[in-house]
């Protein structure tokens, strides 16, 4: 397989080199508190904080979990029960916690293989084990300089800034701010370790379809990610860049999808003639609120009229096979394909793919070693993404700005 070449490049557009006051200076390492976009000096982290969304692990957990997810929005339990049916279909158990246990174990094995002395503490935003317990446990063990890995690769409020706000909130509520610091690895949407499993999955799907005699024009690749409100998407990434519709969130997905298809075309010439599209799933807001489109099911319904006979559904926005992959893609989108008379295959998420696991530890070592930005690998021209978020990055329009680590005010 061809891997990305590490080549120098200039600071990505929209990332200034100035420093300014960072949010929660007592909550970040001294290096991150400088406000520089890239931390290019070594930082002596002594533990890793694996941060994720969390999920219920039994029928009795489902509604309390969904209350946590929607806290502050005033959504009644009757409406939550509509979403709960997805979890109840699987016995009330989300796969995400089991997947994070497997990821933690894989990270620990990779850390041991490299001879690093870094314990991994795992905490969730919405269900046990919670982030506050993980940070408190780390502190009790004498680990004060944490580097966080969140299980979200792209830039948006829910996939980046909300985690940064969670870290600041936990340090404030536990009283550990100023005693424990939490930095965060860069968003890794275009890191080779994250991208390679998608390349492998799409390549396998296309080889199978082509071997069965399908013409490239009869195949469509649908790169799917979670839809978000347009007003939030438009505020993702640095605010001084015109990212186009969907902000940095959409731009990042488009860039990665293009990189995946370009890589495959170098080994399967016919793949260069296969069309692809970025689509969205899992919309949950009111019909009156604009969200990113098109919806994957709407696109699937239109494909037979375009002469398409087979599709590859690629969960490009997701790191593992959690509920919105199992339900929205393996259930709903697959049913839509069957109703449209299309062959379909859903390609794998990174999960605990060795390339992905190694890539996450590469990101940690970047910060341990102070690797210059010009030497950091990436698969798109948008990267490497910055270590310290720029002012106003990924605002939540509904809730406004809250204190957040690893960023510059506001």
UniProtKB/TrEMBL annotation:
It comes from the Bacteria. It is found in: Cytoplasm. This is Coproporphyrin III ferrochelatase. It catalyses: Fe-coproporphyrin III + 2 H(+) = coproporphyrin III + Fe(2+). Fe-coproporphyrin III binds at residues 94, 163. Involved in coproporphyrin-dependent heme b biosynthesis. Catalyzes the insertion of ferrous iron into coproporphyrin III to form Fe-coproporphyrin III. Belongs to the ferrochelatase family. Its EC number is 4.99.1.9. PANTHER family: FERROCHELATASE, FERROCHELATASE, MITOCHONDRIAL. The keyword Iron applies. GO terms for cellular component: cytoplasm. Pfam families: Ferrochelatase. Fe(2+) binds at residues 226, 324. GO terms for molecular function: ferrochelatase activity; metal ion binding. The lineage of its organism: Bacteria, Bacillati, Actinomycetota, Actinomycetes, Micrococcales.
